[in-house]
Design a protein that fits this description.
The chain contains three helices and five strands; from the N terminus they run H-H-E-H-E-E-E-E. The longest helix has 17 residues.
Length: 129
Amino acid sequence: MDQTLQVRQAAADLVAAFASNDTARYFACFSEDATFLFHTLAQPLLSRRAYELLWADWQAEGFAVLDCQSSNATVSLQGDVAIFMHDVATHIRIAGEAHQLAERETIVFRRQGDTWLACHEHLSTVTQA
């Protein structure tokens, strides 16, 4: 399979795991040293473990992903690294209340053997022109 298609499949697997609120499958898409920069947080998360702990706190407070749709995806291959950019429409529940989010995301994947794992995720809001 072509590397661009492999990255697209890795991204689709990540989005599907997130959309189904499958915690174990979602975090398995990231390397242990992955970093995360979310517009909703004051500080970046500097490891997958830091994000997993925050995710568990969110879930304890009633957070759940109800759906997530990816669109306008592009992939840029840079050797053993690939940059995946897309728009995400996410439906979440926080403390019993549903929210619709429109965001833009960059996920950096790094090839490890035959597998592409996400090593960085940057999520930002979509601004209207």
